[in-house]
Amino acid sequence: MLNKVKDVLRPVVHKFREIRIKNDSSRAARHYEKLIDDFRSSGKKKINYASYVIYDSTYGMDGVFRKMMEDREHWDPKIVVIPDLSRGIDHAKKTYNRSKEFFVRFYGPDFVIDGWDPENNTFFDHLNEFDIVYYANPYDRFVHKYHKIAYASRRNVLPVYVSYGYDVGKLTTLDRLKGPELNLVWKLFADTTYTYQDYVDYQVVKGKNVVLAGYSKMDGLAKFHPSKNKRKKILITSHHTVSLNILPLSNFMEYYDLLTKLPDLFPELDFVFRPHPLLFTTLINNKVWTSEEVEKYISVLKEKGVEYSTGGDYLGIFAECDAIVNDCGSFTVEWLYTGKPGCFVYNKALKEEQLTTLMKKAINSYTIARSEEDIIKFIKEIADNEIKEDNRIQDWVKENIAINYPDVSSFILQEINILKRGELL
Questions:
Q1: How far apart are the C-alpha atoms of 392 and 408, rounded to whole Å?
Q2: In 3D, which of 352, 18, 351, 6 has the Cα closest to residue 177?
Q3: Which of 70, 98, 119, 148 allows an S-S link to 140, with CB 3.0 to 4.6 Å?
Q4: In this structure, which CATH number among 1.10.150, 3.40.50, 3.40.1000, 3.30.930 belongs to the domain 2-215+405-415?
Q5: pLDDT tens-place string over residues 122-164
């Protein structure tokens, strides 16, 4: 009886939620128009900008930030490091400190601000200091009130969103598009023709705040000119979804032992292992592995000569590696920019209807592996130079994926310039 009542009430609740989001977004849009008018009439010549970031590896505005750093006459950019509170205080402290260290090293201490004091558990509200804030995290439930998009939408600041990764899971994508956060931002920059169409079709505001821009994170790939390695290098990745039925991408628990054997099977090749930043945290939190087992596994890899890669800057690895063996989400699309061969390891539990159109199209550009033998066969073909580039794939990538590449950052910078056109750039 209770389930029947829930089934009846569910569409009613969803309808009221949609009406509320639509009303909030309309109010926010009017508020943003007034803010821009006030800014321009004030005579200000410099825009105060902040990137609110949790993880260094999910930061998508480096190119934009560096252009602002080069033009300090018109931009004053800052990184505000904020914690992920959804996975426990120990995880929050560890990842917060690691992200802060990364950005201080990446940009220098003058450009990095604390959004949290981990020792005293004090949160800082910096919104009065900025005109535009980029949110790398689209989930308000992960963060403190001061760091939520909904909170910013009621303050004197223009919130923007650039995806930290490609939308690959259908249900998770729909949840994001129908949720309040991405319907409340001032501008939202879509990365591909497929994601743009998803916003138009499924977002509550039907794409009214969306601009097709491209994927700014990949701009940095163009600056890398890898050395001609005598030894080929293979990138191995693994997603964190070892216990996520809604999007079962990860094959780590099935193939983790294979990775320790690859250096012996292919002594003529080099291997890089780059797990999703949440993989080992997920294993520990779900009591699949202990922290000691994680450390032991990483030690074995290093003893075997496998390079263990972490941190936010991985485009250099993309440039250096000759192929990828991958079961991740965003990496599946991002690797297509390289034009180099890829093997997508298909989880037996993964159903096609769980994927976005973008992800289904991207996977079609890969060699598919459904077993250990398939993975080994692919790597052997790379070692023997048996896989060649497919120009048809690259034409599709240029038209639908690599929009504005490698100048996406310049495009976005122009779009968020709230000074008069031509005055700033």
A1: 23
A2: 18
A3: 148
A4: 3.40.50
A5: 999 999 999 999 999 999 999 999 999 999 999 999 999 998 8
